[in-house]
């Protein structure tokens, strides 16, 4: 006779119940781990783009992790492969697209005084009339000025030593369908050292903190470039305190009066203050600038031309206030001060950034 064990189904039921209970607790623990990871990602993203408004922040966060077309997308801001963002630069015509990292957005500004200057010297009209008009940008970081010149129809040479920034600029060139013949990008540092010298960039003195880790790059002198045009319509230099090195690399270009317009950053407290103090006198005496103007970045006002007696005051003013400045120097022998719509330089005028 066969005996039936009535306790076996009960044991199986208890085992299943215990399994479900353990599974529930495992899922609960896993859920908290997942929520902690998501919260960490949220905090990191918020810190990276804390300068934007909350609606834009949530839209950027959603677009970054869900890049497909969605209801939050708009015409002026789209995303590419994370962490790059595409900005439509429509603050002035012509419009172009700029590829940046999400945390680079705060370094993109309209530069209204500079925009006014470009209107006064007729950059757009000149490039439309002659597509071989050459614009050179040294140390562009994101490349916005050179890309704008390319959108105007100019031929543009861009020199960016930082590999990560050069990669972003290259993405912008491709996105705007600019010909690589008309817009040429060089991952070189412009310096008065012999061309093809290997150096570390950034050098560590005066370079902005937004740059990535140092990289080994090659130098190039502007005098050694085989330029496609006899003259450079506009040379823009953003060398973070090493502007003098750039100018010395182009002694022949300046001596032959092949540079018509010059814009550069003025950082009187960076690197060697003696060199910075001598920068404006050097531009006036050695580069033979006919007129020197100050471009205030926070409005559309141009001040100048700076007289010889204004230069020392200008230096003292900006070093005491820790103010950077944008300087325009007219080098064209045909330059006329009436061409630039400027106000008289005010020694008590200060601008906060």
Automatic annotation (TrEMBL):
It comes from the Eukaryota. The chain crosses the membrane at residues 21-47. Keywords: Membrane, Transmembrane, Transmembrane helix. Signal peptide: none annotated. Gene3D superfamilies: Vaccinia Virus protein VP39. InterPro entries: FkbM_mtfrase, SAM-dependent_MTase, SAM-dependent_MTases_sf. Residues 151-272 form the Methyltransferase FkbM domain. This is Methyltransferase FkbM domain-containing protein.
């Amino acid at each position: 006779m066969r005996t039936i064990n009535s306790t076996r189904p009960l044991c199986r039921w208890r085992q299943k119940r215990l399994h479900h209970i353990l599974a529930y607790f495992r899922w609960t623990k896993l859920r908290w781990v997942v929520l902690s990871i998501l919260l960490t990602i949220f905090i990191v993203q918020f810190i990276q783009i804390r300068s934007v408004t909350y609606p834009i922040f949530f839209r950027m966060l959603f677009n970054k992790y869900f890049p497909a077309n969605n209801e939050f997308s708009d015409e002026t801001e789209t995303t590419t492969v994370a962490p790059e963002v595409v900005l439509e630069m429509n603050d002035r015509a012509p419009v172009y697209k700029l590829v940046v990292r999400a945390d680079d957005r705060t370094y993109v500004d309209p530069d209204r005084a500079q925009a006014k200057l470009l209107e006064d010297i007729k950059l757009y009209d000149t490039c439309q009339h002659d597509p071989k008009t050459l614009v050179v940008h040294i140390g562009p970081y994101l490349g916005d000025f050179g890309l704008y010149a390319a959108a105007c129809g100019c031929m543009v040479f861009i020199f960016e030593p930082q590999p990560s920034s050069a990669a972003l600029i290259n993405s912008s060139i491709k996105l705007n369908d600019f010909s690589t013949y008309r817009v040429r990008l060089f991952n070189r540092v412009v310096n008065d050292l012999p061309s093809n010298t290997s150096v570390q960039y950034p050098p560590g003195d005066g370079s902005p903190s937004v740059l990535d880790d140092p990289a080994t790059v090659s130098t190039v002198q502007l005098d050694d470039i085989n330029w496609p045009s006899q003259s450079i319509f506009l040379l823009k230099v953003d060398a973070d305190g090493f502007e003098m090195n750039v100018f010395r690399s182009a002694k022949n270009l300046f001596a032959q009066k092949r540079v018509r317009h010059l814009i550069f950053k003025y950082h009187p407290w960076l690197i060697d203050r003696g060199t910075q103090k001598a920068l404006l006198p050097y531009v006036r005496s050695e580069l033979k600038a006919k007129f020197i103007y100050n471009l205030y970045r926070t409005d559309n006002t141009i001040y100048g031309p700076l007289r010889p007696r204004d230069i020392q005051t200008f230096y003292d003013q900006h070093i005491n206030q820790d103010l950077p400045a944008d300087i325009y120097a007219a080098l064209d022998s045909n330059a006329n001060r009436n061409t630039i719509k400027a106000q008289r330089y005010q020694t008590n005028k200060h601008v906060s950034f």
